[in-house]
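Support reply, case 0932

Customer input (verbatim):
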Amino acid sequence: MSIEKAVVIGLAGNEVSKKITGSDECSVGRSVVAVGSGAAIGAVAGGTLVVGAGLVGLASAPVVVPLAIGGAIVSGIASLFD
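Our regenerated output:
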């Protein structure tokens, strides 16, 4: 995982949360949506949802988990300062 990828994923999750909630105001609800969106985008970027539960999915776990967590953290933080 690179920090740059986590930041880009997190900012994308924040933008998705704005579209889903229909607001760019800081709120707990939008932060929750942002964290979930960042984690989902991180999981997709890491290949978890595409690969599935096969051996390749298990082998990519060390990359996927940090991307999902990093994306979720950055999304949550970004949603607080918009």
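We compared this against your earlier run and they match. Two observations from our side: The chain is about 80% helix and 0% strand. Residues 61-80 form the longest helix (20 residues). Please reopen the case if you see a mismatch on your end.
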